[in-house]
Amino acid sequence: MQPQESSIQYSRWANGSRDAVSVAAGPGTEEASSWQRISWKLCSGKLGISMKVLSGVALFWAVFILGYVTGYYVHKCK
User: Is 55 within the bounds of a domain?
Assistant: First the structure.
């Protein structure tokens, strides 16, 4: 695994009231930024809320079915 190169610049205004930090990442930033955009779209706003609700409902049903099947085989009459 290769270390990522990045440059961080810090500048302060003369009166000291504003600080600025800028980060420029090295190679591979296009992949990271596109992944961040997709992740941000899927995890925020109305789409993000609906994705979280749907994944919660799907997880509930998966656990419910797994528990039902497990309980069936554990308590099966011989």
Answer: yes
